[in-house]
From TrEMBL:
Residues 72-183 form the 3-dehydroquinate synthase N-terminal domain. It is an enzyme of class 4 (lyase). Binds 1 divalent metal cation per subunit. Can use either Co(2+) or Zn(2+). This is 3-dehydroquinate synthase.
Amino acid sequence: MISNAINQTIDVALGERSYPVWIGRGLLDDTSRWRAALRGRHVLVLSNRTVAPLYLERVTRGLDGLHWSSFLLDDGEAHKSFANVGLALDALASLGATRDACVIALGGGVVGDLAGFTAACWMRGIDFIQMPTTLLAMVDSSVGGKTGVNLPAGKNLAGAFHQPRAVIADIGTLDSLPDREYRAGIAEIIKGAAIGDPDFFAWLEQHAKALTARDEVALVHAIAAKVRYKAGVVARDETEQGERALLNLGHTFGHALETAGRYTTLLHGEGVAIGMLLAARLSERLGMSAPADTTRLEQLLKAVGLPTTVPPGSDPQQLLALMRLDKKNTAGTLRLILWRGIGRAEIVAGVNEADVLAVLKEAAT
Ligand code: NAD
Ligand code: MG
């Protein structure tokens, strides 16, 4: 285990399927290190048309002597589709990929989710390596083995649990990431602290400025702390039978806001930021948490430049209707992740819709 200010390694402990998450600058160029995770001679690098011109060559330089090809998606959530999984599988077929082949995902969560699902499907499951290039992918989507694609009927409706062999988070790739995307990633970092790590939450309050200014030491610390937290949850509850559902704090409200904006007004992390705050207000209203905790959350979100108010013109009744469609619900009642203040979240079933509506109405005025 390497551990200094700038490089960190965190292990996701899943027995035989355990894997390391490396965090640091310049890791893509450390080819001899990551190449050791390849078992066979066939590699398909999956990326997109924004990321590939920036970083693909650095990866393919490490594939010298192997049979490899690349498959590039167009940029955007719309391309996380079943059709593209089919094309990626065709690319593996053209490569003559055998069971020991590896798929490398070079990109954000869209590329990672699709690449992982493709790897899960080819010959019923081959290796894949995550090389996340967004902050959100580094702290969230690349770790934990949830893979999948969207269907016309909804987001992430087709997928599989398939853990990567390694996660290589080269923070140098974030240099080209737009600020808005960077902040959306911070939302998922704050979420981890809000759910289960009060000390980390306090650290984030103290380092909000450094983190938004992309101070490297603060950034690596924050990524590592969130990954360590998520790795622990995943090791205890890989397939979301219980605890892992807590990672959805703010997501039922957030998804409703994202859907209401037709996925064009809010980034996912922005929806989660507002959603966490609404969940905190609802928890406060239900007597589960103290107003001071809600205030701390709101101030931290503001300090890192995340939105804390619902978009103008939001319709509370429409948002409630969208929340009723959430996967966590059972027929007729709302099931939400609420919290008991900084660092403690819980699943609450049978939440009264009138309370949810009251919180939404207050937020929309
Ligand atoms: P994304 O993959 O769309 O990337 C965001 C944008 O940044 C894209 O335009 C992309 O081309 C660009 N980009 C990526 N890396 C860049 C770089 N280094 N420099 C410049 N631009 C870069 O979005 P995301 O936020 O990374 O991921 C969102 C996706 O992740 C969603 O599909 C969501 O469902 C999924 N997700 C999955 C999990 C999971 O557990 N599997 C968890 C959270 C989110
Ligand atoms: Mg999320």
